[in-house]
Amino acid sequence: MIWDITGIGAVSSIGGDPEEIFAALCAGRSGLAELRAFDRGRFRATRAYEIDDRPASGLDEPGRATRWLCAAIRQALDGAGLDHDLTGIPVLVGTTFREQRSAELWWRGRAPLEPAGLYFGPALRSEFGASVTYTPASACAASLYGLAMATDLIALGLAETAVVAGTDAIPESAFGAIDRVQNRTPQALRPLDRDRSGMLMGEGAVAVVVRAADGHGGPVAGRVRGVGVNCDGHHATRPSGASIGRVIRDAHGRAGVKADDIDLVMLHGTGTPLNDVTEMAALAEVFAGREALPYVTAIKSMTGHTCGGSGLLSLVTALLAIRRGRIPPIAGLVSPIDEAAGFGIPVGCVTGAELRTVQVDAFGFGGLNAVAVVEGATP
After folding, report:
1. Does residue 217 sit in helix, strand or coil?
2. Domain layout of the chain by residue ranges
3. Annotation: CATH topology of 3-375
4. What is the pLDDT of residues 39-84, one digit of tens each?
5. Are 218 and 80 in contact (CB under 8 A)?
6. Positive or negative, the Cα torsion across 306, 204, 60, 47?
7. Residue 105 and residue 60 in contact, taking contact as beta carbons nearer than 8 Å
8. Would the pTM count as exceeding 0.90?
9. Residues 169/101, Cβ–Cβ less than 8 Å
């Protein structure tokens, strides 16, 4: 079965909608800046990829992840030519932190706590009448887990249309935890570079409208061929190359494609020493024997790690790359790691690329792995 994506929406540190984000990616423009949300003196790392939408006072405020989520969903519904009534339509929101930042602000005495606002359901009911909501909390693979669930709901005849989304704001506690566990202090997120020193967090939300590809007559931004997921529990933070290889092959099998059919891989690409080496080694094994290896790119080099929504943001980028024939570069990549040898690495934005089928990777802590295969819309 194949599923149409009929509308897309996104908000990030480099743009307020998918086209603006894609243009920034192709221009190599980064959202990296000095931390604004909390006291930089408390951390070794002092930079992040934040959305600069706070009040003029510069003070943080609650509910930002929910606000971006609603904005991305509105964009996706408008793109799909649908009204904003989601009564009976499943909405699946992948997230790592939900509204954890809002709880932190209450704990610090800087904002009142609205317990119902820590969950996205009430806001989605208020804004869109959404009566069926799910919150896959599968770490950094959450939004692609949501996509897998949505395609299953449609394939089983339990829904005709679904909205899949992802959103996260940067919580101070999570930023601090990552700051403490990384051996080095990154100044930027630099996937695949020999001098990469770790991950920096980003903010944003993303949404897509999904329907069965059954001639519904609406606009089509692209198609989902298949989604593979697994959870190996291999290690809290160290990924398993064997498990990543299995989920890639599972996604290919579900999509009805072979390794030779993949033109581009949207990497998970966190810029951490273990993730980059493991991901590229797994890809090298899966694509071994090809006459020419596919292109690879990693948008976290410009958006930061947007956590729960990161996989779906890469997927939306993939659809625009197919449509525009352009592949964004990996910002900050100077000296690629050995494991990336032979893969097509864009130096600057690649134009005129003939892209038909793209693989999208998303891997989370604890061995939560998800891979989607997408293609362009049929003319």
Report:
1. coil
2. 3-375
3. Peroxisomal Thiolase; Chain A, domain 1 (3.40.47)
4. 889 999 999 999 999 887 677 899 999 999 999 999 999 999 999 9
5. yes
6. positive
7. yes
8. yes
9. yes
